[in-house]
Amino acid sequence: MWISKTIFNHFKSRLNFTPNYAPLSLLSPRRFASTIAQNPSTFNSIHDANQVIDFPGGTVKFIPEMRFISETSPKRIPCYRVLDDDGQPLANNFVQVSEEVAVRMYSNMVTLQIMDTIFYEAQRQGRISFYATTIGEEAINIASAAALTREDVIFPQYREPGPLLWRGFTLQEIAHQCFSNKYDNGKGRQMPIHYGSNKHNYFTVASTVATQVPHAVGAAYSLKMDKKDACSITYFGDGGSSEGDFHAALNFAAVMEAPVIFLCRNNGWAISTPTSDQFRSDGVVVKGQAYGVRSIRVDGNDALAIYNAVQAAREMAISEERPVLIEALTYRVGHHSTSDDSTKYRPANEIEWWRLARDPVARFRKWIERNGWWNDMAESELRNSLRQQLLHSIQVAENIEKPPIEDIFNDVYDVPPSNLREQEQWVKDTIKKHPLDYPENISA
Amino acid sequence: MATLFQGVGAVTPFSASSSLDSNKLLLPSRKSLSISDSRGSIFVYRSDALNLKAATRLQLSPGHQKRSPSEDLLLHQSRGSFGAFGLYLHCLRIAYPWHELLLFEALREGLEEEMERDPRVCVMGEDVGHYGGSYKVTKGLAEKYGDLRVLDTPIAENSFTGMGIGAAMTGLRPIVEGMNMGFLLLAFNQISNNCGMLHYTSGGQFTIPIVIRGPGGVGRQLGAEHSQRLESYFQSIPGIQMVACSTPYNAKGLMKAAIRSENPVILFEHVLLYNLKERIPDEEYVLSLEEAEMVRPGEHITILTYSRMRYHVMQAAKTLVNKGYDPEVIDIRSLKPFDLYTIGCSVKKTHRVLIVEECMRTGGIGASLTAAITENFHDYLDAPIVCLSSQDVPTPYAGTLEEWTVVQPAQIVSAVEQLCQ
């Protein structure tokens, strides 16, 4: 099938031939172009018969020299950026962002930054069991979400709460999830930072690495079948790109022509594994072409570059029905999580340098201030107000009771089967018999 | 979990789990009768190789399945009509029209009916499209429904299962076909960590109405890697349901039920059963995913089995009947959860249990079934439960060796004789 389609398309282009089929809707029966192989001998008469061979997959030129393709390119793939380190635009060819959107983006980036700081502290104080920060990657989080619409579905890894904040998930809801209380969307079933909200088209985070990447392809397939004006986007890190699921998902997306954006946050570290131990390719962007996926490398700390790239990728994904791979280069300023101390495997001054000199939030702030859209007073107001809000949310969430016992057993299936109901009754009976052995803030 | 399907009158609850597909609710287009639910009297046509018994009128009570029209499928094929009896059959057919087909065709029929009924149903797997599937279960569907609804995938089981999960969460109802169940071991991560879990961890926000199906079991010299019995590995995963089909009748019914279920369902087929022929009703029917099938009622001993072993058991049953025993044979069909109601009623009647399975001895379906029966019906047992299963060895290739890793009718007969002493 593949050879005949390639031959058919080539034939078409050579002879200005337009195919004689009406474009059918996706839901009606449709076949790929042709399943009848063209006769190779007629084909060779068009080309110089000595220069090509026609294996399955299409014709290739042959050469008598044995030439290996080098494992590296002399030059690395260049990186797209809009603003320099000082927040000055490098050129004028970027999509302008309105004041409203820019200020909203900035506020969300600050929110994310402060939220991370405070929740991290809360974990250190023993108030929540676990947390993972997104420090250093605020631009990727917020700018990518700003470039999408509410209809685009998001499949996150676990370092992307930004899109949720952008779409209106409140700090109080974040706190509820981190404290696993009864107001958590997930009913207290997942670890902190494993947010999920179907209302916001943000699929629940699973701890498993890169399993969400094929999910996003499946969702894109579904959107394509329904002919929706939406794409799916999935985030993963440099480490996640080593998983088998990443490779197969890119391959599938290309073959199925699915409207999905693969956004790799290459932040240099997979817990303690630096990228030099993760892969030997020129980052993740070069893997796109290997699978037939259009790709671009972007400065992940430049909010405007991310915004522009994601917007363009979304347009391509939906109108051309193709996957797009974006590698956003950045740095993981925080530790992998609260269970990690990254000073054990990287120098503390390197972390500090990236935190201060390359802060994406500060860089974007310089740009909006230069445009007259922001100032010091607005900054301190925002930060104070956020701090108050967060401390209040944490306090509220901490005092709310945990989900009821039934929620251990509900939602395993659509309706609880008899064996689970029995097990639930057993747990409740045990709690009644030994109330002192069980925490007080669970309702039986 | 979906309880007995009530027939077309009840709207199957499709949960609008994501905001993307709010307009997709569809009602079935034809009137259908759920035979599993009917209390009326029906004709059951029983036949064996030598003579055609007259039809008997039966009163069905809830919890019992309509018996499949022919029992000893491996031993004979139904013949056409003869003379007066042929006329009788002809009248029967007008009253209750049926058609004859093979098991893989029954699966295809079930699949096609569901695809016709609901445009969200789609199939994905290796070689399911133009090729029609390695066992021809999806033959002709790609031509009819297009390449997008019957999707050929590259070879990456974990990833196309993941894709199916993502599609299911976004509003489709995919059926993922593993070319051989053994290949789904590669998909274990997605099945266990995501398929079974995401409905729960998302707090019920996202449902995964996916069906994962494929042929498994010991075939004819397919080698160890292609003779896996995965039901024992999957049975612990919370959040999934498992069913095993064994006849064309229940294959079609279970396929349809699995597709309509809101939970992820794994449908186990068997490589050697695809060419079984049986007559199935023309009218639409859906079976329950949690019910066992009473194959042969009896008084002396309960034999629990599923999939291919059902036929070995029925073969042994013939010998046992000649020797004067009256075994009750139940095809458990539902591997997770077990239909402890049907099984329990049987145990209370016969007080002896023999489990015949193709799984390995250690950690197999039989092992957990033994535990479940002992826990629940210990007082009703007159003898310890005996479980006949395959040995804990990879399936050897040599034909004679392979035959002896699978439970044979002779072993079943001697086990029954020993239990009934």
UniProtKB/TrEMBL annotation, chain B:
Catalysed reaction, written as an equation: N(6)-[(R)-lipoyl]-L-lysyl-[protein] + pyruvate + H(+) = N(6)-[(R)-S(8)-acetyldihydrolipoyl]-L-lysyl-[protein] + CO2
One GO CC annotation: chloroplast
SMART domains: Transket_pyr (SM00861)
Stored Pfam families: Transket_pyr, Transketolase_C
SUPFAM superfamilies found in the cross-reference section: Thiamin diphosphate-binding fold (THDP-binding), TK C-terminal domain-like
GO terms for MF: metal ion binding; pyruvate dehydrogenase (acetyl-transferring) activity
Record's keyword terms, sorted: Chloroplast, Metal-binding, Oxidoreductase, Plastid, Potassium, Pyruvate, Thiamine pyrophosphate, Transit peptide
E.C. designation(s): 1.2.4.1
Entry cofactors: thiamine diphosphate
Locations listed in the record: Plastid, Chloroplast
InterPro entries per record: THDP-binding (IPR029061), Transketo_C/PFOR_II (IPR009014), Transketolase-like_Pyr-bd (IPR005475), Transketolase_C (IPR033248)
The protein's name: pyruvate dehydrogenase (acetyl-transferring)
Organism taxonomic ancestry: Eukaryota, Viridiplantae, Streptophyta, Embryophyta, Tracheophyta
